[in-house]
Amino acid sequence: MSKGGIMKIKQQFAAALFASTSLIVSGAALAASAAVQIDADDIGGVVSGAKGPEAGVWVIAETKETPTQFVRIVVTDDQGRYVIPDLPKAKYKVWARGYGLLDTAPQEGAPGKTLNFSAKVATPKEAAEIYPANYWLSLIKMPEKNEFPGTGPSGNGINPGFGQQQDWLTHFKEQCHYCHQLGTKATRDVGGMTNHVEAWDQRIQKSREPGDIVVGPHGKAFSGTMVNNMTRFGKQRGLNMFADWTMSIEKGALPPAPPRPAGKERNLVLSIYDFAGGHFIHDEATSDKRDPTVNANGPVYGVDSLMAYLAVLDPVSMKTEEIPVPGLTTNGAQLKDTLSVHNPMLDQKGRVWMTMLGGEGLAMDACGDDKNGSAYAKYYPNPAKTTRRITLYDPKTKKIDVIPTCYSTHHINFGYDKDNTLYFSGDTNVLGWINTKTYDDTKDPIKSEGWCPFVIDTNGDGKIDPDRANWNQPQGINVVAGDPKKDTRISGFPYGMNISPKDNSIWYAKHSPAIPSGLVRLEKGSNPPFTCKTEYYEPPKLPDGSYAAYNARGVDMDSKGIAWVAFGSGQWGKFDRTKCKVTNGPTALGQQCPEGWTFTNTPGPQITGQTIGSADWHYLTWVDLHDTLGLGKDVPILPGSNSDSMIAMMPNGEQLVLRVPYPMGFYPRGLDGRIDDTKTGWKGKGVWANYGEVPLWHQEEGEGSYVKMVKFQVRPDPLAH
After folding, report:
1. Which of 330, 464, 559, 668 sits in a 20 to 30 Å window from 254, CA-based?
2. What is the pLDDT of residues 299-320, one digit of tens each?
3. What is the pTM of this model?
4. CA 463/CA 112 separation, integer angstroms
5. Are residues 91 and 143 in the same domain?
6. How many domains does the structure of the chain reveal?
7. What is the DSSP letter of 281?
8. Which of 619, 644, 673 is the last residue of a domain?
9. pLDDT tens-digit map of 671-696
């Protein structure tokens, strides 16, 4: 037989083998789809690839026929089956996305339909296009440990103020991630420029014009911040680092592949709603953390901290609105160019309390002297040049009250007391609070408010000296040892904060200095301010002078009184105070309780050269006290702000990555849980978070993207409906 004849027989055999294999795969898919049970408001089916069913793949249904754009996403089970449950009546674009695969061709679907998908294998480069930002960021190279301390422009180009590699990493992660992810398509692509150093130099100088709906009048300020942060590295050394990163990607460098969802991660149901009318939203509030049935089926709120709007989403009607927040001195008018509304929280009545940054108008004399008989002003005056304030929105009356305070505010949480005391972070010198019962009864902010300085019982007598002239004083934000016979006041920015349901103690993540950062615990006692006492705990210092973790940002407490801490280094911190041998006395300045700490790296790769932590970054921390997510009570959750995810720590130490695969760019800051119906199991509850990236155009949809509110639900199995 000729060579041509032999070749023809081989081709015919291969075609027959391919056809039979395709029939087997197709038959398996049909059999599996027949086993997928759906209701009239579900879409279900099977995702298959060249080798059979594709497990751990997301199936995405998106519609614009609802009052606001809506997306629901589920994950396939180990047989490639999926059920997208309880869809609003509409036409949907439906497709599948999975690691190692190309996105499938979209199909038009509607509730009650069965849709099967055939997925094609992606090349490594194609597959990496949908990897989360932290995987791409892992390719960037930090200066080596032996290059520190920096020797400046005439030496290695590193800022001499950076004494160790952790200083560089902290500045890199905190200052660059604060507004957006790093590793997204928008940040790893320099737009075709051949000189990557020049591209990065130009990039950080670009700004949006005043009046932009996303950043308002702040475009030039953000650009200035980026330039200043690059300069702090040692500008040329910093530009070279970013340029080397994007150049290596342009030449073909690829990150490691993330794992597909497995186990309980496949039980996830995501519901995603556009809202806020194009405004940037910092974070959200849905219910009272102490009682997540408050505001059941009600609105979900978010705050535009750049232009002072309260954004509202009704997840039932899917209607949205934006409410302008007024200033203290404007007779109800909005100062959208200067006001900054930062963090919302719901009380037991469903009202929305909001912190406000900065000050406005003339200062209140009552904060700095005791002419009105204020014990707080006498014990520790806390004056300011302008009046600090908070706001209160009542959804029943649609009215917003602006309330002056004697302390700066940033994040807020309610205590577990009969007066529904609301506590604030954000003042570098004091813990501030408002007794909301007293305020409701009197409408008098001075009678309702109190504050305590952060003073440690370092003389060990069990109390704080009432005469502030006798305290050791801090050196700026640094905790320093002083006279061991005196108590010691500490200072620094208290960022994230929460209240222990076990003993009503107040806990802060002391954010500055970022290395090492630490935890502040404060108890008010029976007669504040005189009975207030502070404790302070840092991550342990290691033999080489670095720390076991750094850049503490958020803290929350479980029902047992365990503190769970978000570290920007890419780590969980678990702190058990009951293990501490020392809580006061002359050594209680931060390093006295290494035995109380446990640290765990969060999932994902490390940045090249990083030795602890991960390439992820975590904004705050939240503990699911009431099982609003579906993973159990007391489960702590970190926002994976650089990994499109929420990360849950299970009691056995397993970390679940609950990924938002579309649109890429999910940047959560805070989160909140709510129970809408106690009788319907997983369907009646969920945890909410929003896309909190400042440059919304960095999201996968690009220019014109809206902020999205995301509801996370975990069902009993991947096919539950």
Report:
1. 668
2. 999 999 999 999 999 999 999 9
3. 0.94
4. 67
5. no
6. 3
7. -
8. 619
9. 999 999 999 999 999 999 999 999 99
